[in-house]
Write a structure and sequence with these properties.
One of its GO terms (cellular component) is plasma membrane. By secondary structure, the protein is mostly helical. It folds into 2 domains: 253 residues, no CATH class; 55 residues. The radius of gyration is 23 Å and the shape is globular.
């Protein structure tokens, strides 16, 4: 099994297309670094502006008109708490460190997802297109092992991409801003209602951010892998995955009042909502989302494995 996985990884990394795609991620990192270096790190009058913002938030909370919903009021109260924490602990809102730069670069997850979709959408279907699937099947290994080795190689590539993004952004950020501030408290834009300021450092948040990003890449890679195993067409597998992912994200954001959407895959893939946001539906927890994702992935594998193991290679 180990030799099969190594062989599949070699197939991925030996292709020039893979390094072109990886190069796009590196280019995006350099572009982000250029813009970050040109931005003003700390505004001289940030304390005055933050004090004014706190006063405005306090006035909004005291507004007797009742325009604020309970949820909006709770969010505003929590934002006020964190803004006051910034002021009390001398943490400028525009303060930039290598850790926060790496956090910001995680926003390029969409580009990384496209790269993973292309790799996963091609890894099985290309074997059928080139006819090399016959060379795999004449080996004394089962189709299930071939299926698993290709899938594991796909996941390992996603891991490589996340390590490249996280490590590369830390390296570039360190060169630009230094490596201080690892233990500095992380202040999210929309914190959880029960989140206490100072409980999460930027280093911890960075690990959580890239861990959540890795899981998302594994989800979209699994979808692409399913289509790749089922369609025998790389173009079709990649296109279908991008359409399904885009539509899935849109549907998740378009039906916020339908409680059944909490069982929708793409409502659960953004795990950061449990650390620095607010889950869209009451009762949703990190364990719930992980369970929903697991059920979907098992379903995808059941479909892909059934088709792959029964496929007629002579067709």
């Amino acid at each position: 099994m180990g030799n099969l996985i190594q062989n599949e990884q070699l197939k991925i990394y030996i292709r020039p297309r893979t390094w072109v795609l990886v190069g796009l991620v590196v280019l995006s990192l350099l572009i982000n670094a250029i813009f970050a270096a040109k931005q003003v790190d700390v505004m001289p009058d940030w304390k005055e502006k933050l004090t004014q913002q706190i006063q405005q938030e306090q006035q909004q909370l005291l507004d007797p008109s009742g325009k604020l919903s309970p949820q909006k009021r709770s969010q505003l109260q929590q934002r006020l708490t964190f803004d006051q924490y910034r002021l009390d602990h001398n943490l400028p809102p525009t303060h930039t460190t290598s850790w926060l730069f790496a956090k910001g670069f995680a926003g390029q997850l969409g580009l990384a997802a496209i790269v993973c979709i292309v790799i996963a959408g091609d890894i099985v279907s290309s074997e059928f297109a080139w006819g090399t699937i016959k060379l795999l099947l004449i080996r004394p290994v089962t189709r299930t092992k071939i299926y698993l080795s290709k899938y594991i190689a796909t996941l390992l590539f996603s891991l490589f991409l996340i390590v490249l993004m996280g490590g590369g952004s830390l390296l570039v950020g360190g060169l630009l801003f230094g490596l201080d501030g690892l233990a500095e408290p992380y202040i999210p834009n929309v914190p959880l209602e029960d989140m206490v300021p100072g409980t999460l450092s930027v280093g911890q948040d960075l690990l959580i951010t890239y861990g959540a990003a890795l899981l998302y890449l594994w989800v979209v890679s699994t979808i692409a892998y399913m289509f790749s195993a089922a369609s025998r067409s790389s173009v079709l597998a990649i296109t279908l995955t991008m359409v399904v992912t885009a539509v899935g994200e849109i549907v998740a954001k378009s039906l916020p009042s339908f409680s059944g959407m909490k069982f929708w895959l793409f409502t659960n893939t953004s795990l950061l909502q449990y650390f620095e946001g607010i889950p869209p539906f009451p009762g949703m927890t990190l364990g719930f989302s992980l369970a929903v994702i697991a059920v979907y992935l098992l379903l995808f594998h059941a479909i892909a494995w059934a088709i792959f193991t029964k496929s007629d290679v002579a067709a």
